[in-house]
Amino acid sequence: MTTGGGGRPSRSRRPARRDDGPADLAMALAACEERKAVDGMVLDLRGIADATDHFVIVSGTSDTHVRAIAEHVLDTLRERGSRAHHVEGLSAGRWVLLDYVDFVVHVFHPALREFYQLERLWGEAPRRLLEAGEEA
Fold first, then answer.
1. Per-residue three-class SS string for the chain
2. Does residue 8 surpass a pLDDT of 50?
3. pLDDT > 90: what percent of the chain?
4. 80 has which bridge partners?
5. Domain covering 20-129 assigned CATH 3.30.460.10 in the classification
6. Cα–Cα distance between 61 and 74 in angstroms, integer?
7. Cα-flanking dihedrals φ and ψ of residue 131, to 5°?
8. 119: exposed, middle or buried (C-beta count within 10 Å: 0-12, 13-18, 19+)?
9. What is the predicted pLDDT for the residue at 3?
10. What are residue 13's phi and psi, to 5 degrees?
11. pLDDT digits (tens, 9 = 90+) for 54-81
12. Are 58 and 39 in contact (CB under 8 A)?
């Protein structure tokens, strides 16, 4: 453990990046597709943000659909031995955030996606649109 300012130990609150991050990202994309997520895209934040490498942004068509997509991503990655570092919004189903450190999955209700416009906020990030039937 390293020491921070004042001689106190500094602790990273985020776990280390995983070697199988790219495979987990591909599985998360496949899980979104399996639950019929719409308007999917991946933003490549490497070199732009330090917190994560990629944002996966998808929409559901209702609160129930948003929750179903997010729960399927969680279940699919848990079966691979990967657990989300942080989950927000699952019970409400309007905007669910699944933080896997190397990537963050945002599952939006369409109204909230339009309001927050993450794609515009991270406009300089290279993006890849996910076509229907595409898994990774």
1. CCECHHHCECCCCCCCCCCCHHHHHHHHHHHHHHCCCEEEEEEECCCCCCCCCEEEEEECCCHHHHHHHHHHHHHHHHHCCCCCCEEECCCCCCEEEEECCCEEEEEECHHHHHHHCHHHHCCCCCEEECCCCCCC
2. no
3. 79
4. none
5. yes
6. 19
7. -85, 155
8. middle
9. 41
10. -85, -10
11. 999 999 999 999 999 999 999 999 999 9
12. yes
Q: What is the pLDDT of residue 130?
A: 86
Q: Which residues contact 47 (CB under 8 A, 6 or more apart)?
A: none
Choose among 109, 83, 113, 98: nearest CA to 52: 98
Q: How many whole angstroms separate alpha carbon 98 and alpha carbon 104? A: 6
- CA-CA-CA-CA torsion sign (118, 22, 135, 88): negative
